[in-house]
Design brief:
binds zinc ion; binds guanosine-5'-monophosphate; 3 helices; single chain
Length: about 120
């Protein structure tokens, strides 16, 4: 799967994947790119994105379900590499206004490195 050209022209995360916008890379494989969030909400705050542009969780078609598998497997590996697998971490997808989604390129937040609160909304 390649990056969808029309979307990549305007999409910040496509530019980060392509290297035309800088980022602090955390992980990369054939399908997935991961980088440190510019405004971290935890000591470890990584954004894991598919290299193939998809706007949102809702836009992943049933035949693209492997995208989710690739994101979660990358999260596993990154948590291991950053040594937060044992202490614990949180994985979050924001979708739409109520969840305050700001970037419309599918991304999985990986948060960890310190004790979090029990509430997931705030
Ligand atoms: P959302 O609110 O859409 O789920 O998450 C978007 C995330 O992208 C936010 O946590 C925000 O801080 C991060 N972000 C926005 N622009 C950039 C950028 O240019 N570079 C990096 N590394 N993170 C960004
Ligand atoms: Zn994109």
């Amino acid at each position: 799967m390649g990056i969808v050209p029309n979307k990549s022209k305007e999409c910040i995360f496509c530019k980060i994947i392509q290297g035309t916008l800088p980022s602090r890379k955390a992980f990369e494989n054939e399908h997935v790119f991961a980088f440190w969030d510019i405004a971290p909400q935890a000591p470890v705050h990584i954004l894991i994105v598919p290299k193939h542009h998809v706007d949102d969780v809702l836009d992943v078609r049933p035949d693209q379900g492997i995208l989710f598998q690739q994101l979660f497997l990358a999260a596993q590996q990154i948590a291991g590499q950053l040594e937060i697998a044992g202490s614990g971490f949180r994985l979050v997808f924001n979708s739409g206004d109520h969840a305050c989604q700001t970037i419309h390129h599918l991304h999985l937040h990986l948060l960890g490195g310190a004790q979090m609160g029990g509430s997931m909304v705030g």
